[in-house]
Known about the structure:
By secondary structure, the protein is an alpha+beta fold. Helix content is 16%, strand content 43%. It has one domain. It is built from one helix and three strands. The longest helix is centred in the C-terminal third of the chain and has 10 residues, at 48-57.
Amino acid sequence: MSEQFHEVWAVVNHDTNFLNIETGVGVGYTGGADRLTLKLMVSRDLNNKRSKQTLQAKPPQ
């Protein structure tokens, strides 16, 4: 039980046509937590173009 930790996070997301960016700051408030944690996630949806092309290829009848 002494290894348990609790953190509070403030996070900001920003989505563009090309990338998705998530950044945040976490503050630990128990003994097992890090005092301060920073994060940065950069991602891209690799299936996004394919699904749009599939929808455009077959018009509704």
